[in-house]
Design goal:
Number of domains: 2
CATH class of the largest domain: Alpha Beta
CATH architecture of the largest domain: 3-Layer(aba) Sandwich
Strand order of the largest sheet: 2-8-7-6-5-3-4
Helix content: 40-55%
Structural class: alpha/beta
Number of strands: 12
């Protein structure tokens, strides 16, 4: 039976989500902006989802939730929505292990004259708050630090980083929390953040809906203009089936998070220990303790012939789905920028592999995966000797 261990890339929609989406496609397909009964039914579904997402992250007002097509659009809206207010380039700060949805927009700003500081990380991929404090400048207008790193699983000390930012500047703070929301508790009020990105298909919604939390009083410019939906920040008719799926997934995640995160953490730790004991030519990457509960990542550290991509292909032929780093860039053979930032060499940075679990993952799945990888390493070694 196939074993899917790539839920950091996407998750299978829950049966309850599929049922709701089917119902909306059949009976609730109206335009939420229309004034007739079809539109009113759609608007009710839309606003219900807004409340559900706000509840999941403890946003004080559902109006602070702006629906987008996913995490990438939410990240872009945060970056460009803030920086476009300024007629002259200013200073912004990101970490050196950001997802490309942050790193690439910032590169565009850099070409336009913006000053960018990329904070270093330690060998486990974690930012030092003192480095942030030292990097802040009078003209720093935005700090964006990823919450849970998708490739190596490390969780950043976001609350402390927000405190450092607010104590020393008037800069806004954004976090890409795509891998965190729905997996672990996220409380935007307690964190004190200004902007947060999330995506529904990372926790059992369907692909095509995400959201940007915008703290009340924070002003953004839209990426494009049109009918003024989503408080004027995201014009265009909302994708109601996808948004409703996000709302329901958020509600279900909130109810089950404590028990499910505990279960996943147990599976994660068991898998990491078993993998390292059975396959000594693997080394753990990322933080061991400050780590996403559903995430395990390793470096293949003793055979130049085995890359992360090669391992992904071999396991796929065995019916096991994993990733070589972030799924958004895993089709490339270039060294991982995240692993390079963590101090790995270019030769090492093409050898990362990632396993990420979901509500369907069992201990038997993980044991079989370890056994298959052990056999693959044996075959790799024999082929290498034969050459």
């Amino acid at each position: 039976m196939p074993i899917y261990l790539d839920s950091s890339a996407t998750t299978a929609p829950r049966p309850e989500v599929i049922e709701l989406v089917t119902k909306i496609l059949a009976d609730g397909w109206g335009n939420p902006s229309s004034l007739h009964s079809w539109g009113e039914r759609a608007a009710i579904s839309l606003e219900k989802a807004r409340w559900q997402v706000a509840d999941l992250i403890n946003a004080s007002s559902p109006d602070s939730i702006i629906f987008t097509s996913g995490g990438t659009e939410a990240d872009n809206l945060a970056i460009f929505g803030i920086t476009s207010h300024y007629h002259q380039p200013q200073h912004l700060i990101i970490s050196s292990v950001e997802h490309s949805a942050i790193a690439n927009p910032v590169k565009i700003l850099e070409k336009q004259g913006w000053q960018v500081t990329r904070l270093p990380v330690n060998r486990e991929g974690r930012v030092n708050p003192e480095d942030l404090k030292n990097a802040l400048q009078p003209n720093t207008v935005l700090v964006s630090i990823i919450y849970g790193q998708s490739e190596v699983g490390t969780i950043q000390p976001i609350k402390k980083l927000v405190e450092v930012t607010k104590d020393n500047t008037k800069a806004l703070f954004h976090t890409d929390a795509v891998q965190m929301v729905g997996r672990l508790p996220v409380d935007v009020e307690d964190l004190g953040i200004d902007l947060l990105s999330l995506s529904g298909h990372k926790f059992y919604g369907i692909q095509g809906a995400g959201a940007l939390y915008v703290k009340q009083g924070v002003k953004l410019n839209p990426l494009w203009h049109g009918g003024g939906q989503e408080n004027g920040l995201r014009s265009g008719t909302q994708s109601l089936p996808a948004i409703a799926s996000l709302g329901l997934a958020a509600s279900l995640a909130q109810k089950e998070m404590e028990s499910e995160s505990l279960r996943l953490r147990g599976l994660r730790d068991y898998f990491i220990n078993l993998m390292l004991s059975k396959c000594p030519n693997l080394a753990l990457t990322g933080e061991k303790f400050y780590r996403l509960p559903h995430h395990a990542s390793f470096l293949i550290n003793d055979d130049e012939a085995i890359t992360g991509r090669k391992m992904v292909r071999k396991l796929s032929l065995k019916g096991i789905g994993i990733s070589a780093g972030s799924a958004c860039s895993s089709g490339q053979t270039l060294p991982s920028p995240v692993l390079l930032a963590m101090g790995y060499s270019p030769q090492e940075a093409i050898k990362g592999i990632r396993f990420s679990f979901d509500r369907y993952t069992t201990i038997e799945d993980l044991e079989l995966t370890v056994a298959v990888i052990f056999e693959l390493f044996l075959s790799f070694f024999k082929d290498h000797i034969a050459e």
